[in-house]
Structure formats: C-alpha cells, structure tokens
Amino acid sequence: MFRPIDRQPDFKNLEAVLQCKTPSRPTLFEFFLNDRLYNKLTDNAPYRGNRRTIEAFDSAGYDYSTVRVSDFKFAPDKHKKQQTISLNDGVYITDRESFDAFPWRDPNDFPMDDFLAIPDYLPQGMKVIPWSDGGVLENVISLTGYENLCIMLYEDRQLVYDIFEKVGSSLLKYYESAVNYDFVGAIISNDDWGFNTQTMLSPKDMREFVFPWHKKIVELAHNAGKYAILHSCGRYDEVIDDVINDMKFDARHSYEDNITPVEKAYDDLQGKIAVLGGLDMNFVATKTPDEVYARAKAMVEKGKTGYALGTGNSVPEYVPDENYFAMIKAVF
C-alpha cells in the first residue's frame, strides 16, 4: 500500500486541535480527496464507500476519516454532471402546492450497513467524522433554486420557514442516527453560506432560517460528547460571531486567499475556534510542489495551537498529486 506518511493514527491529535490546544504532533485535516488519490492510496482497492475512504485517509497520515452515514439525500440529483452548476437548476419547490406535494424522505429509511460495519476494519486510534449530502441552506437552495428562494423571502416567509424546518429537522435526524457511536469522534455540518463578497442571504435571514438548525446540530454533537466542525465556503466576516458564540462550533473549515487568507484567519480566530485547512485551492493547484511545501511548512510552524493543515476546501481532480503530497509532507 502506498503510504506517503507512515504513522499510527491517533484521534487525540485532532481532538487537541478542536479544543484549540497543541497536538502532540502536527496534524492534518481534509474534507475529501478524489478518486485518483483514493485509488493510489488504497492500491486500487476493489471496494468503495466508507472503507475505501478510511483506508486512504489512514494511508495519507490522517487521524480520522470523513464518512457518510447512509445514502440519504432529499431528492435525485437533477444537476448536469459538470464542474460547476447553476444555483437555479433542478428546482422542485416553487410554492405551497409544490411544497405539500414534494415526497419528503426520512433519513431513517436509508440503510446504514456500510456505516455500521466501520468498526470491523477501522484502524486502531482512528475515529470517523460523518458528513451529509449538503447542509441546511445548500439543500433548501437545491430544492427551491436560489432566485426562487429570494423571491419567497419577500412573498411567503412562512413557506420559507416550513421548507427550512423540513430540511433542518431531517438533517438533525440524519446526524442523530450516528452521533452516539463510540467510533465517531466529531461531525461535519457542511453547508456553503456565501459568495466572495457576502452571505447568500442577509445575516438577518441567515439568523432566522439557517443558523437555528446548525445550532441544534452542534448541540446534538456536544450532548453526545462529540465535536462539531463547520465546513462552509464564502465570506464569513459578518457571521463569525454567530458561528463561535451562538452556534458554538468547535472548528471552521474552508478558506481562500481572495476572501481571507488562512494566515490572517488564524491570527483573527486563534483561541476562539479551531482553524482547519486553509491553503488556497488555486495556490495548491497552480504553484510548484516546492512553493506548496514552503507555504504549508510555514503554516504548520505558525499554527502550533488549534490548527490542522490542509487545503482550503478539498482535493479535487485538478490538484496535481505531487502538490498534494508536497503539502502533507509539511507535517514532518
């Protein structure tokens, strides 16, 4: 098996980061990799799903692996298989009639066999971090379309409330089905909230419709003795106090240089909330391996407390493998 970093996983390192403490060694964090890397890190293992992801994360030197609890999603994906999609594509709900007619799915109706089998092969010292198929705002937008949602906010706020209640309560149930297992160390509430210049909805509307459900998800995790990580893209300046002091997330993930470089984010947030990843995607994808290594190494030296190294978002196919490996090498 290809192991670029050969070390025994120990979730206590990431746990220290999530507590804004200093781990026993520099620690890695990533949301997900890509099929090419998964295949390379698992010697083209014949299995897929959580087992392949866990084996790949272990091979690359992570102390945890992200996983899915089940295949639950709110509706079949109508989006074209492209690198980018329209926020108005694939609309299901446009008014009260279509809301009432929509076939809402129950997370508990989806088999959890793949998730429940994890202890059979999970490496010693490792824990898993469940994530969902989109978050509260993302799923509402996928059902309504972004422009339609904005119009609904003016024309029928009760309908908007009801849609968010359906989506939020379902995601809460999804995480509830997994959070009490001992092999789970944290959860990721993954929900993109903003553009480069502002949040998708006004901060006031975010606080009314979106944040209460994230607060419930965080409370669910904390009540089970687990940590809650926010993965969210976009500008966050106007809502970071909500993230830290109201929703009480333990960590925030997703940073980019044209919004807030991770070095500045760490200076601003150190001691308040753990900072995860952050090496700008464009930087990691386009610079030389030596340049990626140098910035990653400098960030490891800077972020000794409450920080784990990784990309600003994830490792998609367009990131050269040699750049990814140069980045994770910096934890040595």
Could you characterize the architecture of this molecule?
With 332 residues, this protein is α/β, with parallel strands linked by helices. The chain folds into two domains: 1-72 and 110-128 and 255-332, no CATH class; 79-102 and 132-191 and 200-231 and 244-249, no CATH class. The protein has 14 helices and seven strands. The protein has helices spanning 11-18, 35-41, 49-59, 96-101, 113-116, 136-144, 146-155, 157-176, 203-223, 240-246, 262-269, 281-286, 289-302, 321-329, and strands spanning 64-68, 127-131, 186-190, 227-231, 251-253, 274-276, 307-308. The strands form two sheets. A five-stranded parallel beta sheet has the order 3-4-5-6-7, with helices on both faces. Strands 1-2 form a two-stranded parallel ribbon. The longest helix is centred in the middle third of the chain and has 21 residues, at 203-223. 46% of the residues are buried.
Radius of gyration equals: 19 Å
Low-confidence stretches: none
- The best one-word shape is globular
Order of helices and strands: HHHEHHEHHHEHEHEHEHHEH
What amount of the residues lies in strands? 5-15%
The overall average pLDDT, rounded, is 95
Largest sheet: 5 strands, parallel
Give the neighbour order of strands across the main sheet.
3-4-5-6-7
Percent of residues in helices comes to 40-55%
Q: Which key phrases capture this entry?
A:
332 residues, alpha/beta, five-stranded parallel beta sheet, globular
Summed up:
This protein is an alpha/beta fold. 42% of the residues lie in helices and 8% in strands.
